[in-house]
Design brief:
Elements (H helix, E strand, L loop, with lengths): L1 H15 L1 H12 L8 H18 L8 H19 L5 H21 L5 H7 L4 H11 L6 H4 L4 H5 L9 H19 L3 H12 L4 H8 L3 H18 L5
Helix pairs in contact: 1-3, 2-3, 2-4, 3-4, 5-7, 5-13, 6-7, 7-13, 11-13, 12-13
Length: 235
Protein backbone atom coordinates (compact mmCIF):
# COMPACT_ATOMS: atom_id res chain seq x y z
CA UNK A 1 0.00 0.00 0.00
CA UNK A 2 2.82 2.40 0.92
CA UNK A 3 4.61 1.80 -2.37
CA UNK A 4 1.42 2.34 -4.37
CA UNK A 5 0.74 5.58 -2.53
CA UNK A 6 4.30 6.76 -3.10
CA UNK A 7 4.08 5.90 -6.82
CA UNK A 8 0.77 7.72 -7.17
CA UNK A 9 2.22 10.79 -5.46
CA UNK A 10 5.23 10.75 -7.79
CA UNK A 11 2.97 10.55 -10.84
CA UNK A 12 1.00 13.54 -9.59
CA UNK A 13 4.22 15.54 -9.15
CA UNK A 14 5.36 14.67 -12.67
CA UNK A 15 1.98 15.60 -14.18
CA UNK A 16 1.87 18.88 -12.26
CA UNK A 17 5.33 19.95 -13.43
CA UNK A 18 5.09 18.76 -17.05
CA UNK A 19 4.52 22.38 -18.23
CA UNK A 20 7.89 23.28 -16.67
CA UNK A 21 9.55 20.74 -18.99
CA UNK A 22 7.96 22.35 -22.07
CA UNK A 23 8.88 25.85 -20.93
CA UNK A 24 12.55 24.92 -20.46
CA UNK A 25 12.60 23.02 -23.78
CA UNK A 26 11.24 25.91 -25.82
CA UNK A 27 13.52 28.35 -24.01
CA UNK A 28 16.51 26.27 -25.15
CA UNK A 29 15.03 25.80 -28.63
CA UNK A 30 15.15 29.55 -29.25
CA UNK A 31 18.94 29.24 -29.59
CA UNK A 32 19.23 25.88 -31.33
CA UNK A 33 19.18 25.00 -35.04
CA UNK A 34 16.05 23.54 -36.69
CA UNK A 35 17.57 20.04 -36.73
CA UNK A 36 17.09 19.86 -32.94
CA UNK A 37 13.55 18.65 -32.30
CA UNK A 38 11.51 20.02 -29.41
CA UNK A 39 9.96 16.58 -28.83
CA UNK A 40 13.42 15.09 -28.21
CA UNK A 41 14.22 17.73 -25.61
CA UNK A 42 10.82 17.34 -23.95
CA UNK A 43 11.26 13.56 -23.78
CA UNK A 44 14.71 13.97 -22.19
CA UNK A 45 13.31 16.62 -19.83
CA UNK A 46 10.51 14.32 -18.67
CA UNK A 47 13.13 11.72 -17.75
CA UNK A 48 14.96 14.43 -15.79
CA UNK A 49 11.70 15.38 -14.06
CA UNK A 50 11.05 11.76 -13.12
CA UNK A 51 14.56 11.44 -11.67
CA UNK A 52 14.01 14.66 -9.74
CA UNK A 53 10.80 13.29 -8.25
CA UNK A 54 12.71 10.22 -7.06
CA UNK A 55 15.75 12.03 -5.65
CA UNK A 56 14.34 15.27 -4.23
CA UNK A 57 15.11 15.81 -0.55
CA UNK A 58 12.98 18.50 1.07
CA UNK A 59 15.47 18.83 3.93
CA UNK A 60 18.07 20.33 1.56
CA UNK A 61 16.19 23.64 1.51
CA UNK A 62 15.53 24.13 -2.21
CA UNK A 63 11.99 24.07 -3.61
CA UNK A 64 11.10 21.10 -5.78
CA UNK A 65 10.61 23.35 -8.80
CA UNK A 66 14.13 24.76 -8.41
CA UNK A 67 15.66 21.30 -8.04
CA UNK A 68 13.56 19.84 -10.86
CA UNK A 69 14.45 22.72 -13.18
CA UNK A 70 18.13 21.93 -12.72
CA UNK A 71 17.61 18.23 -13.41
CA UNK A 72 15.34 18.88 -16.42
CA UNK A 73 17.74 21.30 -18.07
CA UNK A 74 20.67 18.98 -17.35
CA UNK A 75 18.86 16.07 -19.03
CA UNK A 76 18.15 18.22 -22.08
CA UNK A 77 21.76 19.37 -22.33
CA UNK A 78 22.87 15.75 -22.11
CA UNK A 79 20.57 14.98 -25.04
CA UNK A 80 22.12 17.83 -27.05
CA UNK A 81 25.65 16.63 -26.22
CA UNK A 82 24.79 13.05 -27.16
CA UNK A 83 23.57 14.17 -30.59
CA UNK A 84 26.12 16.94 -31.09
CA UNK A 85 25.03 18.63 -34.34
CA UNK A 86 27.75 21.26 -34.49
CA UNK A 87 30.48 20.71 -37.11
CA UNK A 88 34.01 20.60 -35.73
CA UNK A 89 34.67 23.86 -37.55
CA UNK A 90 32.15 25.64 -35.30
CA UNK A 91 33.88 24.40 -32.15
CA UNK A 92 37.28 25.34 -33.58
CA UNK A 93 36.23 28.85 -34.61
CA UNK A 94 34.59 29.52 -31.22
CA UNK A 95 37.84 28.58 -29.48
CA UNK A 96 39.82 30.84 -31.80
CA UNK A 97 37.49 33.76 -31.08
CA UNK A 98 37.85 33.23 -27.32
CA UNK A 99 41.64 33.16 -27.66
CA UNK A 100 41.64 36.33 -29.79
CA UNK A 101 39.47 38.12 -27.21
CA UNK A 102 41.80 37.00 -24.42
CA UNK A 103 44.91 38.24 -26.23
CA UNK A 104 43.39 41.63 -27.07
CA UNK A 105 41.97 42.27 -23.61
CA UNK A 106 45.17 41.20 -21.86
CA UNK A 107 47.26 43.50 -24.04
CA UNK A 108 44.95 46.53 -24.04
CA UNK A 109 43.35 46.22 -20.60
CA UNK A 110 39.82 46.85 -21.87
CA UNK A 111 36.96 45.15 -23.71
CA UNK A 112 37.97 43.77 -27.10
CA UNK A 113 36.14 45.48 -29.98
CA UNK A 114 34.55 43.62 -32.87
CA UNK A 115 36.92 45.17 -35.39
CA UNK A 116 39.95 44.17 -33.31
CA UNK A 117 38.82 40.56 -32.94
CA UNK A 118 38.07 40.36 -36.66
CA UNK A 119 41.53 41.74 -37.47
CA UNK A 120 43.28 39.16 -35.27
CA UNK A 121 41.22 36.42 -36.93
CA UNK A 122 42.02 37.88 -40.35
CA UNK A 123 38.40 38.28 -41.38
CA UNK A 124 35.91 41.09 -41.95
CA UNK A 125 33.59 42.26 -39.18
CA UNK A 126 30.69 40.76 -41.14
CA UNK A 127 32.45 37.39 -41.27
CA UNK A 128 33.18 37.64 -37.54
CA UNK A 129 29.50 38.31 -36.81
CA UNK A 130 28.59 35.24 -38.88
CA UNK A 131 30.97 33.13 -36.77
CA UNK A 132 29.15 34.36 -33.66
CA UNK A 133 25.82 33.53 -35.28
CA UNK A 134 26.95 30.02 -36.20
CA UNK A 135 28.34 29.39 -32.72
CA UNK A 136 25.19 30.44 -30.87
CA UNK A 137 23.63 26.99 -30.54
CA UNK A 138 26.98 25.43 -29.65
CA UNK A 139 27.36 27.99 -26.88
CA UNK A 140 24.09 26.92 -25.30
CA UNK A 141 26.33 24.83 -23.04
CA UNK A 142 28.96 27.48 -22.44
CA UNK A 143 28.23 27.80 -18.75
CA UNK A 144 28.67 24.04 -18.46
CA UNK A 145 32.00 24.35 -20.26
CA UNK A 146 32.97 26.99 -17.71
CA UNK A 147 32.17 24.60 -14.89
CA UNK A 148 28.60 25.59 -14.04
CA UNK A 149 27.25 22.13 -14.84
CA UNK A 150 23.82 21.10 -13.65
CA UNK A 151 25.05 17.98 -11.88
CA UNK A 152 27.37 20.06 -9.72
CA UNK A 153 24.57 22.48 -8.90
CA UNK A 154 22.12 19.68 -8.21
CA UNK A 155 24.63 18.06 -5.85
CA UNK A 156 23.96 20.92 -3.45
CA UNK A 157 20.42 19.55 -3.03
CA UNK A 158 21.23 15.83 -3.10
CA UNK A 159 22.94 13.30 -0.85
CA UNK A 160 26.24 13.55 -2.76
CA UNK A 161 27.28 16.89 -1.31
CA UNK A 162 30.65 18.25 -2.45
CA UNK A 163 33.63 18.11 -0.13
CA UNK A 164 34.76 21.22 1.74
CA UNK A 165 37.59 22.03 -0.71
CA UNK A 166 35.38 21.43 -3.75
CA UNK A 167 32.64 23.55 -2.22
CA UNK A 168 35.05 26.43 -1.56
CA UNK A 169 36.41 26.21 -5.11
CA UNK A 170 32.90 26.31 -6.53
CA UNK A 171 31.99 29.33 -4.44
CA UNK A 172 35.21 31.03 -5.53
CA UNK A 173 34.36 30.29 -9.15
CA UNK A 174 30.83 31.66 -8.76
CA UNK A 175 32.26 34.85 -7.29
CA UNK A 176 34.65 35.22 -10.23
CA UNK A 177 31.87 34.44 -12.71
CA UNK A 178 29.62 37.09 -11.15
CA UNK A 179 32.45 39.62 -11.35
CA UNK A 180 33.14 38.67 -14.99
CA UNK A 181 29.47 39.13 -15.90
CA UNK A 182 29.38 42.49 -14.09
CA UNK A 183 32.43 43.52 -16.14
CA UNK A 184 30.83 42.79 -19.52
CA UNK A 185 30.00 45.67 -21.88
CA UNK A 186 26.60 47.14 -21.00
CA UNK A 187 24.65 45.67 -23.92
CA UNK A 188 26.10 42.18 -23.42
CA UNK A 189 25.35 42.37 -19.70
CA UNK A 190 21.77 43.41 -20.45
CA UNK A 191 21.25 40.54 -22.90
CA UNK A 192 22.57 38.07 -20.31
CA UNK A 193 20.23 39.46 -17.65
CA UNK A 194 17.19 39.40 -19.93
CA UNK A 195 17.91 35.87 -21.12
CA UNK A 196 19.00 34.13 -17.91
CA UNK A 197 17.24 36.17 -15.22
CA UNK A 198 14.08 37.34 -16.98
CA UNK A 199 13.98 34.24 -19.25
CA UNK A 200 13.06 36.20 -22.38
CA UNK A 201 13.79 34.54 -25.71
CA UNK A 202 16.02 36.15 -28.34
CA UNK A 203 13.10 37.59 -30.31
CA UNK A 204 11.68 39.23 -27.17
CA UNK A 205 15.09 40.63 -26.24
CA UNK A 206 15.41 42.04 -29.75
CA UNK A 207 12.12 43.88 -29.27
CA UNK A 208 13.38 45.34 -25.98
CA UNK A 209 16.68 46.49 -27.50
CA UNK A 210 15.27 47.50 -30.87
CA UNK A 211 17.55 45.17 -32.84
CA UNK A 212 17.04 42.00 -34.89
CA UNK A 213 16.91 38.53 -33.36
CA UNK A 214 20.10 37.61 -35.25
CA UNK A 215 21.91 40.60 -33.71
CA UNK A 216 20.82 39.51 -30.21
CA UNK A 217 22.16 36.05 -31.05
CA UNK A 218 25.52 37.59 -31.95
CA UNK A 219 25.63 39.72 -28.79
CA UNK A 220 24.77 36.71 -26.64
CA UNK A 221 27.47 34.55 -28.27
CA UNK A 222 30.01 37.33 -27.87
CA UNK A 223 29.18 37.68 -24.18
CA UNK A 224 29.64 33.95 -23.57
CA UNK A 225 32.89 33.85 -25.53
CA UNK A 226 34.15 36.87 -23.60
CA UNK A 227 33.32 35.09 -20.33
CA UNK A 228 35.14 31.97 -21.53
CA UNK A 229 38.25 33.99 -22.33
CA UNK A 230 38.17 35.83 -19.00
CA UNK A 231 37.60 32.64 -16.99
CA UNK A 232 39.96 30.41 -18.96
CA UNK A 233 41.99 29.68 -15.82
CA UNK A 234 39.01 27.73 -14.43
CA UNK A 235 38.93 25.17 -17.24
Amino acid sequence: MYNNTKLSSREEVVTKHAPLVKRIAYHLMSRLPPCVQADDLIQAGMIGLLEASRNYDVTQGASFETYAGIRIRGAMLDEIRKNDWAPRSVHRKARKVAEAVRIIENSKGRDARDSEVAEVLQMTVEEYHQVLQDANGYLVMSFDDLGMDDEATAAQFADKSPGILEGLQREDFKKNLAEAIAGLPERERLVMALYYDEELNLREIGSVLGVSESRVSQIHSQALIRLQSRLSQWK
